[in-house]
Amino acid sequence: MTLDTLQDFISAIEQAGELHRVRRPVKAHLEICEITDRVSKMPGGGKALLFEHVLLRDGTRSPYPVAINLFGSMRRMALALGVDALDEHGRRITELMDLKVPEGLLGKLSMLPRLFEVSKFPPRVKGGNPPCREVVWRGDEIDLDRLPILTCWPDDGGPYVTLTMVISKDPTRGIRNVGMYRVQQLSKNTVAMHWQRHKVGAAHWREMAERGETMPVCIVVGADPASIYSASAPLPPAVDEFIFAGFLRREPVKLVKALTNDLEVPWDAEIVLEGYIDPREALVVEGPFGDHTGFYSEADLYPQVHLTAVTMRQHATYATTIVGRPPMEDYYLGHATERVFLPLLKMTVPEIVDYHMPAEGVFHNLVFVSIDKQYPGQAYKVMHALWGQGLMSLAKVLVVVDKHVNVRDTQQAWWAALNNIDPERDVRFTMGPVDVLDHASRAFTYGSKMGIDGTRKLPEEGFTRAWPPLIEMDQATKAAVDAMWPELGL
Predict the structure, then answer these.
(1) Per CATH, is 349-461 categorized as 3.40.1670.10?
(2) Mind telling me the catalytic residues?
């Protein structure tokens, strides 16, 4: 079943027994964050939460319930993308990348279902009166204080819209980008747009600012789950996130032209903030913000968005997320990216077997990689190849291990790596770009990286001793114990 709306997703979560409704009055200021933080750190990520009685900053009840931690478990993440296991989409990508045309008429005909599936990916732009415009605020009606925008942490610079789909277009090529960037409320009708310098939306803004052109922006809050996830995915700049969402959904995303600019937004969106950035205006202070590293990111200067319209469904639900000390909901979004994008990584670095970004590494601090090692120095070749791959260039520590190591088991990965290294011989340092949120780097967005070769060493790599075999029980004894296990009472 295709989940076309946020409401469909919430209903599916509830039917799966993974939704908890909170009917007690709870403040949007700090309290929802504290409750969600505790729940998200429960085993398996805790339940999704729907706060039905949210108190705004003036003490009144919000007419909009707040949904949070929707993606915060492996099961819900798979449900969001319409699969039983996230690797299923990876296999679909592998099949699409196999472009060899088979011999014979029957072989060619066998490709038709795959070609038909590809034809369904592009979004469909519709006219008419979409659900996302059942309610419209314009001019003096625009009042963000009426929305249950969370203040997450005590030292945050203000309330933040977090689970966003920020829509912009490349001013030269017209290619759409949909990114998940945090947005700080500044007033009733203005927000600060936090897009880091490595992000595509920021590149669109820089180009339009150089031209002196006003930049249209739409900020979507709540849509179908595949589109929300796609906004967080590290897609190449030339790939439209709504096309990718269509691939994940196996159905096209329905769009409609925005009310006050030429961008398109999801037909079934819950809430849409339409606006523009004036390049002639000075940047505004955004932050501090309690970030996914578990530390506050510092205040900095970012562009201001003036809202021209707020549109929404008649009974909209405000979807949001919080970030902070891991594990939290963003870990599961990142894990989906691991599984979905592994085949694309293998296309450029084919010796990779698997990779994993553990929650403690907050994505950019630690990446485990297993490889099928065939020759000396291959681990270092893989390290440098990965540091040349898009946002993987920001990885601070890469640990490379042999193919038999399960890198998704952090304990096993560290056990293998730490047993296999001579620190002076097997650790390499290099310089390069680092994440904007890395507060420990020697300079803003620039610092050192560490690569650890935790693979079995070859004689050509200077290892002349005997490499010890792994301890493993023989199969006959394992089978005998398997048979008697039910009788042991263990």
Answers:
(1) yes
(2) 291
